[in-house]
Amino acid sequence: MDEVTGMVARQYEAYAYPQPFTDLAAQVADGYFEYGNPANYAALLWPEGRPAAKQRPLSILAAGCGTVQAAYLAYTNRGAAVWGVDLSEASLAHERYLQERHGLANLRLFRGDLRQVQEIGTTFDCIVCSGVLHHLADPDEGLRALAGVLAPDGAMTLMLYGATARTGVYMLQDALRRLQVPQTTDGVAFARRLVEQLPERHFARWYLAGAAELRHDAAFVDTFLHPQDRAYTVPQVLDFLERNGLAFGGWVDNAHYYPDAALARYSPEVRSAVAALPAREQWAVVEMLTQNLGMHMLAARRADHCRPGAAPDLASPGWQGLVPHRVPGLKRAPSPPAHAPTYTRGSQGFELGPGQAALLDSIDGSRRIGELLALPALAHVPADTREGLTREFLAQMWRLGHLHFARGAA
Ligand SMILES: C[S@@+](CC[C@H](N)C(=O)[O-])C[C@H]1O[C@@H](n2cnc3c(N)ncnc32)[C@H](O)[C@@H]1O
Fold first, then answer.
1. Cis before residue 259, ω within 30 degrees of 0?
2. Of 362, 350, 352, 356, which Cα lies nearest the Cα of 324?
3. 319-407 belongs to which CATH class?
4. Residue 12 near ligand 1, beta carbon < 6 Å
5. 61 touches ligand 1 (CB under 6 Å)
6. Distance CA 192, CA 117 (A)
7. ∠ CA 176-234-230 to the nearest 5 degrees?
8. Domains in the chain: boundaries
9. 3-163+229-302: which CATH topology?
10. Residue nearest to atom 1 of ligand 1 (CA)
11. Is residue 302 within 8 Å of residue 150, measured between CB atoms?
12. Is 36 touching ligand 1 by the criterion CB < 6 Å?
């Protein structure tokens, strides 16, 4: 094991991540979900339709699974075969605990380096790798290893640290490294005391305010005392994928990348100037104008097999055959009958008129746009304007991150 991998492995042995929970059933019943889980995000992963035609179960790899992710994927994808790989035995021990507790016969766990994942001897329809590649000395090497075991029609979800929001984190990491603060109980206590004394204007303040998990030592060490970590801007994420044989497949949550929600505090003048740019430029500009992306979550495909467009083609002649899918977390809030229907997702909240509400409520992951256009609630809208309004509404819901689109029931 090389020196960097050794240091990383020792950290996650002593501070297994994330802070584990003991009952997956209770967590999932309580609304817990993980981004990129194919059970919820198949439309993002496979907009052309899930590789369900295969006569075998979906194969899923959690690369650098930590304490929970592999068991969570096995629990929420009972029909799939799930593999979890991690350097840390402490993390795998908790995965095993969850496996036994929930009877997850579809889960296999391996201790090892994801760069040797081909030794498992199979390819995967879906690879989830969140919060891992940016801890490798050479993240490209790790990504190429994963791309090498992705099935031709497979899909990957990655979470990579975002550079802008973590600027202050790297300043603190640098200071704590120079102070030689160790990853020990005393070292963590010292670093916590130091963080409490940061001036109001320190670049890490904003990050600290938004990361509730930092109360757990594993997350605190992971953030401020990590021996190896780097972060990416939007253009760097795209370049990282493309130089390693992958094609960008979409953001898990468009709300952070399109001006509609992300630039809500800016004037219509600024928002429309940004919206007029090509998609990749919009994402890059939005990131620089918001500086609030501590992580990038995205889907990727094998570039030699599939190059998804930047947006669903709602202008194509076949657009009515697309199936919209709601993303997890989108809820209609209870509201009095006289009040406009209100929806929430994360920090977003919005009201809709009765026609649009009926449209959104009817999206169930199986109805095609053509069927939605025939809803009785839209019958009062003249036929010649109904299509245009529906197209624009669905495109906006997609830019706000509330919907993904697939050909067929993903
Ligand atoms: C920040 S944790 C993320 C855990 C999990 N993916 C999640 O999102 O909850 C990073 C995990 O990656 C593992 N890891 C880091 N480098 C690795 C490598 N080269 N091969 C396998 N696992 C690795 C660590 O042991 C740790 O459990």
1. no
2. 362
3. alpha beta
4. yes
5. no
6. 37
7. 25
8. 3-163+229-302, 167-224, 319-407
9. Rossmann fold (3.40.50)
10. 131
11. yes
12. no
Torsion, Cα of 323, 328, 333, 338 (10° steps): -10
* Tokens read off for 70: 């592999």
The pTM score is 0.95
In residues, how long is the chain? 410
CA of 326 to the centre of ligand 1 (A): 29
CA of 334 to the centre of ligand 1 (A): 39
Pick the atom of ligand 1 nearest to 18's CA: 9
Residue keyed to tokens 């059933």: 25
Q: What is the pLDDT of residues 167-194, one digit of tens each?
A: 999 999 999 999 999 999 999 999 999 9
Q: How far is the CA of 175 from the centre of ligand 1 (A)?
A: 24
Is 85 a pocket residue for ligand 1 (Cβ < 6 Å)?
A: yes
Radius of gyration of the chain (CA): 22
Q: What is the pLDDT of residues 20-70, one digit of tens each?
A: 999 999 999 999 999 999 999 999 999 988 776 555 789 999 999 999 999
Instruction: Give the 3-state DSSP-derived string for 339-380, with helices as H, strands as E and coil as C.
Output: CCCEEEECCEEEECCHHHHHHHHCCCCCCCHHHHHCCHHHCC
CA gap 153, 225 in Å, rounded = 38
Ligand 1 near 65 CB (within 6 A): yes
**Residues paired with residue 297 on neighbouring β-strands, in sequence order:** 159
